[in-house]
Amino acid sequence: MDDLKIADDSQERITILTDSFDSAAMEFHKRRMATKGYRLENRIAGHHFYMSEGTVASKLFEGDVKYAVTFVRD
What we know:
Layout (H helix, E strand, L loop, with lengths): L12 E6 L2 H10 L8 E2 L4 E3 L2 E4 L2 E4 L6 E7 L2
Antiparallel strand pairs: 1-6, 2-6, 3-6, 4-5
């Protein structure tokens, strides 16, 4: 299922997480982001994600690295 509704004009920044660099890089083309007015905001990089709950931070995605790609529309 694909819940990403890029057609919504209120979204100015979208971040997609993937399991690989190649998958993240393909999102720009696969979702036709340029035709929707988006550009790549930053470089694609692997991240470890944590959720902070006050003084405690817990690992997300079982500590696995996810690649984040962020698109922005001016």
